[in-house]
Amino acid sequence: MPTFANSRSTLILVIGDVVTYVFSLVLTLVVRYGAIPHRSLLVQHIPAFSILIAVFIIVNLSAGLYDKRLALLRNGNRNLFLTVQIVNIAIGVIFFYFAPVSIAPKANLIIYFIISTAMLYVWRVAMFPVLSLARKQPAVLVGSGDEINDLFEEVNGSVHYGLIFAGKVQPKTSVDEAVQQVAEMVKDRGVQIIVADLADPTVEKAIPFLYTLIFSGVQIIDAGRLYESIFDRVPLSMVGERWLIENSNTVLGSRVIYDTLKRTIDVVIGILVGVISLVVYPFVYLAIKIDDKGPLFTYQVRVGKDGAAVKILKFRSMSGEDHGKYDAKGSTKHVVTRVGRFVRTTRIDELPQIWNVIKGDLSLIGPRPEFPSLTAIYEKEIPYYNARHLVKPGLSGWAQIYHQAHPHHTVDTAETSNKLSYDLYYIKNRSFGLDLKIVLRTIQILLKRVGK
After folding, report:
1. 134-162, pLDDT tens digit by residue?
2. Do 385 and 438 reside in the same domain of the chain?
3. What is the pTM of this model?
4. Rounded to an integer, what distance in angstroms lies between the CA atom of residue 408 and that of residue 330?
5. 162 shares a domain with 86
6. Sign, CA torsion 442/444/445/446
7. Within this chain, do residues 126 and 141 fall inside the same structural domain, yes or no?
């Protein structure tokens, strides 16, 4: 669900990127030939580059470069921008060297990528922040709890949303009091937007009053949907049977075309990566044998789709076969070996799991599977935790790229609840675009770790 300025900002970004790509092409020809390009030269280049620019926009969109929190190239977002550019450059090279198009000389392509990368960076850093400023519409936030407070602070603390909360009404037990406060803000402050936590029992009793306001031009927005669109996670305090029923077609329902194509992609990419990864096996085997002479593989039992137990295969990185069994404090008698530390850092230890993908136990993208012992605890302590088992677990997922405080073999209800909020967001919104975004983000994270 777009959030006011988000749609406008996305449109500005897309148009700006297209203009920048086209301008970079013209500037490339100026640099290459030392003069403003003749019309015939432009005609020669534009058809092929039009296709390429369209692909670039799709890749940028899938990678999240048009998302509200990634639009501005700050801090880690710059790394994502550079990663996406590398992907785009690779696509461009493949396109011009193997597709039935002809661009000569090939030096033009190199110059174009250098110029377009620099121009895109300048556009994003210097120009977009000015153009994206939106006129804010006053709104009132109705609800209570930490997630409502986070929503209030995020919206009022950012210049890139098209609304600002003029006040916050926290319903306690009195519906009449909450209704009176909202009515006063609509009348006295000219508020025309009400963001309400419709899952709150007190707010739910005020729905008849909210209904009457829509005939006065007041817009009513579900706070849960707004929270989800801003934070890319589902607010757990607003998840219940009603939420599951309302989203049953997306959360519980089967997506035949998506599921079938995703499984096909898993098998095709799994076989390709699996065969290529065999090159690494002899080196890992020799390293492990030289280090401690132990076995090459180990396996861990995890919880898969529909709660079924699956055994995932990994290169052994610890001094013994622990099979994922840890004590209550997350400790084990085994220690990480020298080779194990390297394969963990580079994520080489995860490579054998590609065979689990081919077998069908895992998918390339999905919620990461948890240990059965921890799952049993979380299903008792976290409402609707078992909802994450509605889809097949994956090698990488939405929570893995956005939730930074992963509990490691220990019981941590608070952080696991946060992780679940990202998992539910993925389950609800899963699509090829979201999967591609996770893939690109995962690559960026892996490159960053390898570079340390």
Report:
1. 567 889 999 888 899 999 998 888 766 77
2. yes
3. 0.77
4. 7
5. no
6. positive
7. no
